[in-house]
Design a protein that fits this description.
The chain is of the alpha+beta class. Helix content is about 30%, strand content about 25%. About 30% of the residues are buried.
Length: about 130
Amino acid sequence: MHKDIQTYNDSLSVEDNKICNLLAQEITRNLPDAESIIWHGHPVWFLGGNPITGYSKQKAGIRLMFWSGADFDEENLNVRGEKFKDASIFYNNVSEIKTKDLKRWLKKSSEIQWDYKNIVKRKGILVRLQ
């Protein structure tokens, strides 16, 4: 795990740390070609410079977000952004993470991508990559 991501995880409560460590482990395992960094204050994984998935601490819990998740057709990714193609799920306990679902979402995240990398250049217009 990237040391900055480990530092982020270690700054959280014990339960949130467990959630984030498991998420980071599964994301890294299932997206081996992804680059991971702290981006806008929280861990994010990129493929080809395009943000794919990431998580952050919010009032409702740990939010796992998929930038193109609205097109995954997954009912458990039920927190959808209003402007873009993102979808999320919140976790408050590590036992809530269903790794089978997570692996499926991570597979879809590499197969279904919208071009967030060039959204500014396209003046807010998203184009489907894959």
